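Researcher: Sequence recovery benchmark, item below. Answer with residues only.
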């Protein structure tokens, strides 16, 4: 009797392992197919494949499959499909999978459903910097810079991406209060961040939009490795603050201007000719 039980247990274990391996292989194959479709911008086909697979397999699909489905929904701005996936298929997973939670927040923000993004964010107990970043980016996209700034103040140790989003939010605000806080934060930036050209460009943009040309010029002059984006931020700022001559002078320092820089140069020239 004991021998039979052991044989039965062993057989059950083998079947379970084989089934698990089969599911894993199936998930891997499907996620690769969906990723390939997304990479080729065939987002509708991605969701068609997802629907076909999940029709009778609502409990076995992997996080990788969910990731590709949510990315397709975001690109299509298919809010209803995204909500269906969230509430009917993966609501229990958002508590433990911060990556999927971040993707959902990004989807809601891209579809201008700020309320759903905020609800998901507020009910997420273990928040990381990436989730804060998704919320801040969403607020900026939806022209709610003040909310992005309020969120920034809740973060103990912001990384370069978060600080960059913070500067973008203040650039959108452009108020005297914004200028004061931008200066305060910029003075506390670790020296290791100073080599980040994207961060410096955002800071230049924020300073210029707040009308602090002097501080922007000082920062620009101190930057050793200047990029075209940094030149562009300065030229755009000069034009905004009616210093077109400075914009054209800066243009003459650029060896290989791109299309954006050339367009800014023409805008500066047009401003110079304006009575």
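Model:
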């Amino acid at each position: 009797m004991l021998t039979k039980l052991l044989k039965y247990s062993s057989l059950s274990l083998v079947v379970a392992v084989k089934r698990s391996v089969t599911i894993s292989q199936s998930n891997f194959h499907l996620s690769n197919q969906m990723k390939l479709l997304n990479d080729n911008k065939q987002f509708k086909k991605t969701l068609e494949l997802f629907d076909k697979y999940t029709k009778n397999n609502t409990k076995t699909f992997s996080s990788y499959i969910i990731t590709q489905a949510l990315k397709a929904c975001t690109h299509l701005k298919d809010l209803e499909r995204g909500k269906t996936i969230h509430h009917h298929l993966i609501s229990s997973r958002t508590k433990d999978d911060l990556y999927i939670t971040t993707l959902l927040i990004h989807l809601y923000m891209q579809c201008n459903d700020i309320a759903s993004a905020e609800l998901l964010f507020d009910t997420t107990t273990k928040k990381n910097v990436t989730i804060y970043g998704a919320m801040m980016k969403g607020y900026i996209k939806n022209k709610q810079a003040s909310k992005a700034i309020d969120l920034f103040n809740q973060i103990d140790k912001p990384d370069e991406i978060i600080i960059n989003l913070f500067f973008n939010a203040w650039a959108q605000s452009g108020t005297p209060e914004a200028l004061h806080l931008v200066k305060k934060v910029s003075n506390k930036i670790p020296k290791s961040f100073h080599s980040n050209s994207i961060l410096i460009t955002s800071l230049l943009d924020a300073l210029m939009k707040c009308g602090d040309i002097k501080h922007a010029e000082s920062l620009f002059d101190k930057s050793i490795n200047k990029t075209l984006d940094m030149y562009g931020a300065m030229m755009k700022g000069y034009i905004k603050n009616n210093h077109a001559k400075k914009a054209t002078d800066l243009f003459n320092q650029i060896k290989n201007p791109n299309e954006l820089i050339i367009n800014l140069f023409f805008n500066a020239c047009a401003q110079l000719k304006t009575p």
